[in-house]
Amino acid sequence: MKIPILNISQFKKHSHHNDVYINTFSNHIKRNKNLINKPHSHNFYLCVLFTKGTGTHEIDFNSYTITPGKIFFLKPGQTHFWKFETPPEGYIFFHSQEFYELAFLEHTLQAFPFYYSYQNPPVLDTTEEKAEDLQRLFKNLHSEYLQNNVLRELKIVNLINHIYIDLTRMYILDTDFEEVKFNSYSRIIESLETLVNIHFQEEKFPKFYADKLNISTKHLNRVVKKTINKTTSQLIAERTILEAKRLMVHSQDSLTTISHTLNFSDYAYFSKFFKSKTGLTPLNFRKKYFD
């Protein structure tokens, strides 16, 4: 079984616009239950505000509690699924990269800390007062989406930008995310993560990525250490482990086949590598996940 990669057009039975989708969360899960009832990923950016409901949200094998006032962010390619204990309510919107960045040519989505790096938490817990303010913004966004007013698309993208700015101010409160966001290293990290996503199966050493970025390996390690307090090798290893977990959970492939898919010379080496990073053998991880 492969992880489904969903696109916006699959959610678009009620709208002609293929680059943006906005809905109440309860209506979203009712309308699209057959699409989202199992782990999946997207090719778009997603934002959810919960106003009611409890449960868990698993994103790339990290579990987060769902409670009123929680906001979640997802970048393209991340695997996730919801598990609710009580009925959820709130708002959800998602859009393509082009939908936002064609409107703001000098401002990319990666400038927002929750989309800047996979290393940054994909969740924000708001205060009751802030949640009420955000709920009004999300409600206005949803209302505009349902109308067919003049300059509708421009209004929608500006409301999304307004929401992202307010969320960024909350997100960086009492943290050093603002320093990281505007640091000259941010573009290097963004490019590095993109390259790692493309090449991690074949290329597991920092020199390859440094050469691709036209910088020295020493400087690349300095950038990674300064921005996310890790080494380049750690970043590559984490992406490899994530893919290994995805294949172990979402495919029926044997562990030996998975080790070959990830370009390990043999299963024994793959198993040793996996255990050194997770504390579990691949076999134990697979059993524990399904138990």
Shape: globular
Total beta-strand segments: 8
Instruction: Write down the overall mean pLDDT.
Output: 90
- Structural class estimated from helices and strands: alpha+beta
Assembly level: single chain
Under CATH, the homologous superfamily of the largest domain reads Regulatory protein AraC
When the domains are counted, the total is: 2
Distance between the termini: 19 Å
Low-confidence stretches: none
Strand content: 15-25%
| Approximate helicity band | 40-55%
Domain HTH araC/xylS-type: 190-288
Protein name: Helix-turn-helix domain-containing protein
Organism: Corallibacter vietnamensis
Pfam family, one: AraC_binding
Structural features, described:
- The model has no long low-confidence stretch (mean pLDDT 90).
- Strand 4 (45-59) and strand 5 form a beta hairpin.
- The protein has two domains: 5-177, Jelly Rolls; 183-290, Arc Repressor Mutant, subunit A (Orthogonal Bundle).
- Helix 5 runs antiparallel to helix 6 and helix 9 (206-212) crosses helix 10.
- The protein is 50% helix and 18% strand.
- It has 14 helices and eight strands.
- The longest helix is centred in the middle third of the chain and has 20 residues, at 152-171.
- It is of the alpha+beta class and 291 residues long.
- The chain is globular.
- The protein has helices at 25-31, 33-36, 97-101, 113-116, 128-146, 152-171, 177-182, 186-199, 206-212, 217-228, 232-250, 255-261, 267-278, 282-290; strands at 5-6, 20-24, 41-42, 45-59, 62-66, 70-74, 80-95, 123-125.
- Strands 2, 4, 5, 6, 7 and 8 form a six-stranded antiparallel beta sheet that branches. Strands 1-3 form a two-stranded parallel ribbon.
- It comes from Corallibacter vietnamensis.
- This is Helix-turn-helix domain-containing protein.
- Keywords: DNA-binding, Transcription, Transcription regulation.
- InterPro entries: AraC-bd, Homeodomain-like_sf, HTH-like, HTH_AraC, RmlC-like_jellyroll.
- Residues 190-288 form the HTH araC/xylS-type domain.
